[in-house]
Amino acid sequence: MTLPSWSTAYLKPERVQLVEDAVKAAELKTSGEIVPMVVRRSSTVGHVPLLIMSILIAIFMIADGPGWQYAWLGHHWAWYLLDAVVLLLVSTNLANIPAVQRLLTTQNDEIEQVNMRAALEFYESGIHTTQGSTGVLLFISLMERRAVVLADKAIDERVPAETWDEVCRIMIDGIKKGHIGLGFTAAIERCGEILAAEFPIQANDENELRNNLIIKD
Questions:
Q1: Cα–Cα distances in Å, from 13 out to 3, 20, 174?
Q2: ∠ at Cα 141 (139, 146), nearest 5°?
Q3: Rounded CA gap, 135 and 214, in Å?
Q4: What span, in angstroms and rounded, lies between the C-alpha atoms of 208 and 26?
Q5: C-alpha span between 121 and 114 (Å, rounded)
Q6: How far apart are CA 132 and CA 199, in angstroms?
Q7: How far apart are CA 153 and CA 132, in angstroms?
Q8: Are 126 and 156 in contact (CB under 8 A)?
Q9: Is the per-residue pLDDT at 64 higher than 90?
Q10: Is the confidence at residue 65, as pLDDT, over 80?
Q11: What is the mean pLDDT of the chain?
């Protein structure tokens, strides 16, 4: 399996296979359709390099308050151009670090945008199209280190929303420990147990959604 280059720091092909095997095993017990998905990030981060640049400029101006650069290098436009280029390169590289992106994105924005992305992916992936309305999305957004479980209406009517908090905690624990594949596997197993209690496997059950782990930017 070919993984996106950014995802190789978090996932290995063998762990992806573990996740897909866990989906198959869970769906042997339930008529629910479990879809695991991981995305690089949900939040917009276009503001991050601008914020970093502003902070660096402020630090530079404070540090150079006595005019050290002018005293050492003289007053020439080339030095100021070099300053701008260095600050731009530093801010651009810092802005690509997930921890910095999290630091400069408010918690409320993260929660809102992760929830919006999960809802969008739920419908774009066709999880709402199962015959019995028994699709479930297990969603991880890596940059924000957040997880969401979205269940279709048949499940939502019989399984309280707070039931999925445990499944979310399992996924988030996997992110924080650097074992996303194992976290997903444990979360899928628990999800299967929850679904099996209310939606046991039927004799005529069909696998309506693919069992693969969906990976998106």
A1: 8, 11, 17
A2: 85
A3: 15
A4: 14
A5: 11
A6: 10
A7: 9
A8: no
A9: no
A10: no
A11: 89
Q: pLDDT of 198-210, one tens digit each?
A: 999 988 888 899 9
61 — phi, psi (to 5°)?
-70, -35
Question: With contact defined as beta carbons under 8 Å apart, do 194 and 17 qualify?
Answer: no
Give how far Cα 55 sits from Cα of 67, 87, 146, 148, Å.
19, 10, 27, 33
Say which amino acid occupies 124: E
Q: What is the pLDDT of residues 149-208, one digit of tens each?
A: 999 999 999 999 899 999 999 999 999 998 999 999 999 999 999 999 999 998 888 889
Q: How many residues does the chain have?
A: 217
CA–CA gap between residue 108 and residue 159 (Å, rounded): 26
- Rounded distance between C-alpha atoms, residue 26 and residue 174, angstroms: 19
CB contact at 8 A, 179 and 76: no
Whether the full predicted model's pTM is greater than 0.90, yes or no, is no
Give yes or no for a contact between 118 and 216, defined as CB atoms under 8 angstroms apart: no
Residue 197 contacts residue 18 (beta carbons within 8 Å):
no
Residue 126 tokens read as 């066709």
129: which 2 tokens?
């199209």
The answer to whether residue 62 scores a pLDDT higher than 80 is: no
Give the dihedral of Cα atoms 47, 51, 53, 57; nearest 10 deg. Answer: 160
Give 126's contacts (C-beta < 8 A, 6+ positions apart).
209
Identify the pLDDT of residue 72: 60
71 alpha carbon, distance to own chain's centre: 48
